[in-house]
């Protein structure tokens, strides 16, 4: 181990200094949380995830051997948002995301994904393939009267043509849901694997299924930390028992190597409900898995 | 999602109003906890479980499609108990339980199960089949000199003929135990599956085994939250490592559909030791799994 | 002690059943929290305060002898709000408040006070005297670009003529503040006592000062729990050290008897940051002090 | 500093070894908690207080110069109790206490004080003077139907002639109370000082008042940790805001030197609700203050 | 259940009295923690593990039937260390360990293993087989400039010939690591199984692999609690997600019966980061599994 | 309020960027904690204090009107230390401190003060006046065999002539202490005020006393957060009840204006024992009080 002990690591993601200049892959925090419907506080997620990432600074990924220190990475700090105004915040997020070639966004609530997809779909000029890992389908047409909150992200993303439902897979889904809402996305071609499906079939089969659905075009990964079981990720707003173990989530991301990844978000870490930083560490580690997974292909 | 956000949900189980009139299936809290032998505080379990159940109010079960809102349910509030007096409390519990056709009791300590079984066995007029999910066998003849505490429930239930040992299965058992106590129930015909057995054989085999033991007669489910591993349910009085994952417990209950269920208790949630409400949520969700499982058959 | 043990108390404020019919004094929760600027989560405040109030159900106030059980009280449950939309939420709150003769509102963030004052000032037909207990002056013209958040409540209330600055006193103020903001309210006639002033001069002098400022007309009490020191109220979003002790706050409210009180709010309890329920208990107790204080005069 | 670092201190009170032989002053734990009426868990109090006392092992009292290491002290471990049976437990406690010349009991709930007073009054052959520091008067005739719980200790102690009401003073009282209960003890000659009285009059006046009431005969100190404000002692079952600061409690005990002290209990520490061990440390320190206070006179 | 309730159990490991005389197998705490590189506080580990072991006092192991009460066990209390001086502490630890025939050491940090191995290798007169369960390989040549910290234990142990790399297996490894460090131990013959390997291949295969590597000579078990996933063991200094479940760790130790075990350490429990004592309980239970596993062979 | 919401504030102290260039007053963290004798973890103090300081970024001091944004301030990040080696760490700290004109050091343990005083006394060329606010006198000649730990700082500082005992005042002292240790510093001219003295005499008298002792020469402020009562600062390693309230500490620092301040340290914040960030906030606020206090004189 070289450098400084973890407890003295600078607070950017993986110890990166803050900058305003994007790199090949850029991390940014989006502290929006006003569209959440149960427990609050994902605004503090980005800084908690960054702090937890100090554990991952030194050395390479133990399986792929990719060392993030050798990659072109930047931490752009926090996106500006409009306090108390979701619509204005979504517009601001889209504007800022549009300027970043490859963004790894740290939430914040899941509502941030919609403007990220808007910006990215416009950039790539086509619908994206989507790997959506979550306890909730997030395809409600609205949430308690709120059109653009964290429960309707993919309803809008599909309706707006930002993602291609036939190349979209949702993994970990297990929450209560109205029957018609549950049927909506599959009726449009979306593949849904529940957490019980993953437990029953195993992670290797899950990976194979996901790769088959995602295909070879530009793809996006949206990871809601509540996909993990509350035992592994208590620090989130709408926990659901029966979820994924952290090792399954890591294996899943490792299994995504070689696809055409264009961006990721890691959302819904709510530090006030975390214990001993384990949820923030899970978020940081899954973001780092993504970086090492896509970074593996950069050298090719 | 319709109705109110979860954070404004009324505090009855699944947002039900409190009532004194039983429904087809009635929920009640039993805040007895004076017979516990390690950590205290299950008296606060019922209210914590109810609060956590707000997450489950809206929508149907994601697999069975059963929507509790369509079932005849009631929350009867808290049972009266006799403070500081176990025997008097057990008598009170039995009296109150006798008036309720189908009771889902929220503990409170496991000691409450004995009077519930007494009331139910009398109602059905025969010994019950029992699915007992727990880290502890609870067949001690006494606990530290106390005849009727949370460790001797099934010793008495078998001796009193309330349950049929040949149609009784205990799942998740793993605590230290005197050799003669461990041998007592199996000698009477009880089937015992340790948590390691479940991990080794898989949940499908466990379900098959349980169904074979339980048979087709009137059955009762007693679920001690410490059957779950402390990672999934830290908020309990006598945790034991090596336990079940919450997804296994959910799968187990789902696998019990079609049997002749007459009642359930979910006991030993001790909120003072919970973190971020995950144990209470596990308790609430397992109770809701039971409701959806038995409710599925009501329409037939 | 009669009735049920506190751990089995129904969950309305002081164990009241929920109702839709106002009483002489009505309690309601307002789970709005999207205008907060530091730590999140006051949406969960009302239910936490209600749960903590179980400690106060049985018996009379130890000094005044007023027993809330003898008063005309109601718990109206939670106000409807518009998720993710402050302006629409403020309008909804004002509409609901307009229907309630004497409201004790449980926050939620401080932003809820503005519509409460709008409704009340219209009802009484004149500007109100205001006792504002808080760590922050809340007279910013905006907060980080947000016009109507928890930091600008009294800027608007004064500008809209809802409160009379000459009959307004702020107690406990101690946060960092721009010099011009600090000068704004005093320039309009508002009296400001810092927490250090209270510590130095004593609570009796503080009470005398407050009574002199408030005068005899219709008065309103807005109590931000962060007026208390974080030692006494850690569960809040924008804590500031050096605050009031809870006994000082109790003495202050007791000292307000005999004035023409028309309403109160107790805001900014953020349960995710609370420890062992002490902040929620402080909130519940201060609300109960208000009830007993105004209730003392009802019998006259 | 000599000896071992605090984190390696043996776990008896002040690092004492456990023994069965009483010393001039003996410490014992009484893990009874089944008579409590709100939050549970004082059974774990004695061990938490002992662990926290490691901070006090090395050196003398900073004011009196008394070094407990020079006194005849013993830690007798935990009293036996009858699980789930208050009456039988009280009898057991009385039997065990009867064998100990000068007992400092660590609770456990306040219900343990009654048998301690029974044993002590018999030993000294007369009614005792009582210094009772508490948020609650504990003179209810019963608690929720329970005759001998933590709320009726001094009702019975006065009725049984164990304490002399004219030489009894209650300090810190502030909870809700039925008017007739509040009047009962004063009508028998008991002096009551509320926490607000202490805050208003100062601790020196409080000490003078207490000494005047207690007089020169055999005296007993019963200290309920909830006399302290929840900010200083969150780890207790029935917290009430507005309480004493820990420095006031220390000053009070220091001010009791020279009286004829025969025993003390420190009760109602509930570790599950403690934070960072501060309540247990307060309990340990107040017990140590008593030891140093009475030990000061031993050498004379 | 006989004896005393768990909440009154004496504080030695498994309720043993402290002694200075070793038994056939002796437990001792080693509160060294100054060589840690991320979160602090393993000095408090031994006492927390002992306290948690109260759950295991009564009765036999549920599978092997071994009852620790029938074995020759002792708790020797805490080892002396040199505050603030790692090298002097390591020397002290080695001296103390040299006097104990079969030691089960409770950490403290992993740095304590080196002097334990030094003492043990000298005692047995040969290199030891090693089962090392951990998230980290701990074969760095130094940690942030520190030669003898918790990250370089096995680098030194191999270089000093204390362990035989060909009979050494590391299980659970998953942290970031420099490529050359990751290659160092395997190049010397060490077998490394990642946590993902265990999850993928199953615990039975893992056990078989370990037994094959360890062989029949004198063997040592070093268990770093961070081998477990943070969900199961949050209370540690350098958590890494994706770890073992507690049931896997238990199965692993049970699978080691019959080998020539000479000692164990259970290190890196950091109670300040624990929740509801689950990490301490995991540590205590794994130590108890070792005792029952080796004790099983004693009677042969 | 301008700028960004507090939850998006950059992580330097008061939102400052990290730099390597000192300003008129520079903040630096010193994450040394291996010399502590009770609870561990002050290594994480600097980053926690910085994070908590976000509350203080916007606006001026409410009493003095000093706005830190107008001062020449820098955050130099963390000092390098030698892991596991106190003596080497002290040497490193002294070297780094020697390069900084006016340092506000954020601990870390109190042991860091000795090298800071060594560097500063050499810089100013004379003994310093010292205001030492603490629960412990820290004048032991050693701590459990350790010559340079957090308990012997001022023993060495006096012996080395770094501070002038006649211009040294210790405030808040209240821990157990050997009689000869308690007598040592006063015998050399040091003034000692216990926490009880402060409570009894009032903070104005305390300020006057301190100013009289400190005189007009170069002065240093060493503030151990455990001077505060554990209610106000639970997050520390060696808490002692009966301490100062945070408002008293603020008043004390404000009362020190106009003296010749040359440096400050704020030590012993141990975040693992903190609750809801209140200790870190207290530390941050007291450091900010110092900045505003000394900054007030800069413009003169």
What key attributes describe this structure?
alpha/beta, 300 residues, homohexamer, eight-stranded parallel beta sheet, 9 helices
| Content-based structural category of chain A | alpha/beta
Q: Describe the global form of chain A.
A: globular
User: Can you tell me the number of structural domains of chain A?
Assistant: 1
Q: What is the level-2 CATH architecture name of chain A?
A: 3-Layer(aba) Sandwich
Alpha carbon gyration radius of chain A: 17 Å
The average pLDDT score of chain A comes to 95
Q: How much β-strand is present in the residues of chain A?
A: 15-25%
Distance between the termini of chain A: 28 Å
Q: Give the low-confidence spans of chain A.
A: none
List the secondary-structure elements of chain A in sequence, H or E. EHEHEHEHEHEHHEHEH
Give the biggest beta sheet of chain A.
8 strands, parallel
